[in-house]
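Input record, target 12 of the design panel.
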């Protein structure tokens, strides 16, 4: 229980490699917040974490080994957060930019498909922004945080009253 079964440096290297691979996979996963995860998204993350655990710890099941792995992951995460703030290049690599998904009363269907959105998602966003029809939409943007912002046409009413952020769920 207290004796390491794997050298500490190996545990650090294993945790680092798996962290980077998992982080890269999540980056490719798309614009989505934890609060927007569907049941399928949550199952995917939990199963992936469970599958990766043996790759991180190897044969080590000791308490010190677990502490080394947890400390390594927290240090890596803090390092990524610091780099993201200090380096515009790292920020561009790690974060998504906004994507226009609708303009002038029409959805951009190829963009919706590429972003993993369907018409149910964006129609829900319209309703949550107080619009009854897509024709009332001037601009719809999938924001970097996964929310959908909608700007109403001038005919739909005051823009300030219609523009707010939406946290709609999206299917994979």
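The sequence produced for target 12 reads:
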């Amino acid at each position: 229980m207290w004796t390491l079964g794997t050298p500490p440096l190996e545990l650090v290297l294993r945790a680092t490699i798996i962290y980077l691979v998992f982080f890269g996979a999540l980056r490719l996963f798309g614009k989505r917040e934890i609060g927007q995860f569907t049941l399928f998204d949550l199952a995917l993350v939990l199963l992936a974490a469970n599958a990766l655990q043996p790759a991180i710890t190897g044969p080590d099941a000791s308490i010190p080994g677990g502490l080394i792995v947890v400390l390594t992951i927290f240090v890596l995460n803090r390092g990524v957060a610091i780099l993201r703030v200090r380096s515009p290049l790292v920020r561009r690599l790690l974060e998504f930019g906004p994507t226009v998904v609708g303009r002038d009363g029409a959805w951009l269907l190829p963009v919706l498909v590429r972003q993993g959105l369907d018409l149910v998602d964006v129609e829900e966003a319209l309703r949550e922004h107080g619009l009854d029809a897509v024709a009332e939409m001037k601009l719809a943007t999938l924001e970097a945080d996964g929310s959908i912002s909608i700007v109403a046409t001038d005919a739909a009413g005051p823009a300030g009253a219609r523009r707010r952020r939406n946290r709609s769920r999206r299917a994979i």
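The helical segments are 8-29, 39-57, 63-86, 88-94, 109-114, 119-128, 159-162.
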